[in-house]
Each structure stands twice: as structure tokens, then as C-alpha cells.
Predict the structure.
Amino acid sequence: MPELPEVETIRRQLNQIMPFEIKSYALSDVSDSIIHTKISGLKGKVILEVQRKGKMLNFLLSDGRHILSHLGMTGSWRISKEKISAKHTHLQFSGVFKGEKYHLAYVDPRRFGHMYLYNEVQANMKLSELGRDLKDPAFTYKYFKEMLLKYPERLIKVTLLDQSLFAGTGNYIANEICARGGVLPNRKVSSLKEAELKRLYKSVSIVIDGATETGGTTFQGGYADTTGNKGNGVGHLVVFYQKICQLCKKEEVIKTTLAQRGTYHCPRCQK
Ligand SMILES: [Zn+2]
């Protein structure tokens, strides 16, 4: 499932063909299972740029409207000079960037993704459901600590996954933050000491930046960037999907299930 680093990789690639003038577009027969608003009046409009909050991509249109796109489990955007004929293409724009023709398509085999065409007010309302983005300069230690302590009885990893507090996290990121922070994922938030909270906070950017630099992380063939390439971020992981902990390089990683999600920890490095 694409998490912040993967969505950020896609965003950066999309911006390489912005501004993009939409000449025409096509929808698949089942596109309305993904696109939850009516799509109309896009012909001749320009996508000015693509922004991101958490895992939500935000396409800014020249008429002031926004396309919000969440990739769900297996969604991706593809860019090509040729018409994109990949199976499970649900929306395809044909248009022009710097006088050259491009195709821009949303591909999603499992269709857990969701998309909306909104005016400014609606878009802001939807984005306000999300907490601060993990890469936002306003994502400070103070914010991190306050949001965690909102629910002192919750387990640390479960709270880290809450998009209304921490926009952009997902299962592998939450596992890796706990590992690098030296904290067991099933600890109650109320049990965390100040030093542990600080280590967890520092781990957020280490995990995010590590995975983003390598173009995102792919597990079981889920995620691909706009060229269909898979990311290399697996090399940055210390416990997630690892046999041996990559922090101590000694201990075997233990896999458990926490709130129905695969959870990994090192018994030596995490307390
Ligand atoms: Zn270890």
C-alpha cells in the first residue's frame, strides 16, 4: 500500500509534466467505484501542479477546482507519450505539456483508491479531515507529542496509523518509526517517557526521508511509480519484512499481529 514516500515519489514525477492541458479524457466502465463525484468540464482545463497532504494527491486545476486522488491499496498514476493501455486503467487524460502530447492515467487493479473532483471549499474540507503531514514544517515535536497524548490508553503503533493525527503514515512506516525509536509497537502511549517520545519523533523523518530518497518502497508488487517502476526503499527497512534486525544485525525480527496488521519488532533494540 503506498504510504507517504511512495505518494510523494508519484507527486514529484507528475509535476514533471505540469502544467498539463487536458485535451480529452476517458473513463472505464467501473470508474464510478473509484471516482465519487461527477467528472465534467475538464476539457481545455489545465492541471497547474500536483500537491500532496498525507497520502492524498491534490491536482490544482486552472478553473479553481481540485482533483483529490487517494491511491488506496494498488492505485497508481502513469505518464506516457503513448496511449496507456494497461489493464485496470480507470481514467485517462490526453493532453499537452510544453507543446508535446502526453497521456496521464490512473491505474488501479483492486479499486480501493478514491478520487473526487471538488471546488476549493469542498477540497479544503476533505483535506482538513487529515492531521498534519509528516513532512509539513508544522509537524513539530510539540504537535507530535500532543497528538499522541490525546489517546493515552491507545497502543503507540495504532495511534501512529491514525491519519486524522499523522497524515501519511501506514503500516510499514509505523513499524519502522517504533523500531528506530527503540519502542515496542504494543506499548501504551501513556507508558512512554519523554526521551522515548523524542526518539520516536526523530525517527519519523529518518524513516520518511530514507524511503523517499530511493523512490518509495514496494512489497508484493503493490506499488509502482508513474513509469511502472518499483521503488528501492526496501533497503532502508530495519524490521519490516526483515528476518534479522538491521539495527543490531544480530537478533531475529519477531512478527506479530496488532489491530489486524502485520507487526515487526526486534526484542533486542525495542523496549
Ligand atoms: Zn535489533
